[in-house]
Structure prediction request, 163 residues.
Amino acid sequence: MQPATGYKHPNLKPIHPHDLEILKWYNGFLSGKQSLPNGGLVVAATSQSNAPKVPALDVALGELEGDRTEPIGGQTVAKLERTPFVRYDERVFSALLNDGMRKIRIKRLEGLSKDEARGLMEYWARSGMLRQRVNEALLGEKWTLSGGGVVGELERAVIEMRA
Prediction:
């Protein structure tokens, strides 16, 4: 699911990311071709921030989601489809679009609502990590600084900036 690597074979041909051992191992478990001997769960996550563009991954995830569209931040996002004008990595499609992967569920995550952020901030205040009164002004400021309720950024805005 990665763009081309900078690694080269001894014959100077580029090494595909799926030929690297850790990705080969991960793809095997993710696709269901290999099983975890004691049982388990494989969780995968993607991010749209500070990530290389892999068009095949975006299209494959869209196909796994099916024809439905989901509201994200109040906007409806349409499924991406293959286009003849983009060069896709077929190994991404073969890794993701198989029978084992058709059983997975895709959950789009969003930031916390203001009410959820208030509850988290009140928890931090009760535990002594936040030494301020949680009011509308503080909530609005920290929720905005956290990019609309991104939990890690909210923690950074509230906990690490308290000094």
The two ends are 41 Å apart (CA to CA). Residues 54 and 63 are 15 Å apart (CA to CA).
